[in-house]
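Pasting as-is:
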Amino acid sequence: MVNYMRAEFYKVFHRRYTYIFLLVLLACEGLLVAGWAFTNANGNDVGFDFGAGVLAMMLSVGLYCTVLTGDLVFSDQYKFNTLKNEVSYGLSRLRIYLGKLLVSCITALVLCAVIIATYVGMCWVVLPHDVATVGQTLSNLGFCLLVALPVWLGCQALTMMFFFLLRSNTVASFLIVGVIMAVPQVLKLLGAMVHPVFRYAYNVMLTPVLDAAPNMVGDWRLVGFACAVGAGWFLVSTAIGVVIFRKREIN
């Protein structure tokens, strides 16, 4: 497994796509912070607490990024028959599935750390701040990230499940976005109009717990609930993906 994962990491971090994706996100962050600095120079008052605190209100963006980090690892393997080659070479399907899943999760965490650290660092350098403000802002942001991380990993497992089970990465990507964006809204509507049981289903979807984090800072029950939700999505998605992938024919 270690050698397989090492080979997968080599492919991911020797692709231009990985660094282009990272540079685009960092450039967007730079433009955002530069825009606030420009408005401050013209009479506005955007401080570090607001600039860095914006991350807490954008946690759901991480769910959509799992499509990109999943694609970095899977990379249209049905289209180019590389997955068939791996199976034909004699690698077990369980090793292939779990290896790519773990590599995608670790890659996502590494890129996430770089993106968040760079953004917070730019806000600290460019925007006005004081010691008390920085400490409180980082504490709040840290809490929100603790809520978000298990949910993001659960979504990463969902992403890899769709990529393994569908031959088209494009179709898989649309379905993932639908689960993230559309399904919770449908369940919320059904809970209001049909039966309250749908509200329980809505609460364990991926986005609601992330949306609640900025308003529940310090409530550690939310962290526990987020861990349960993330673990549930991770385990169920992985189990479904492994079972179906082990039985399907790869042409």
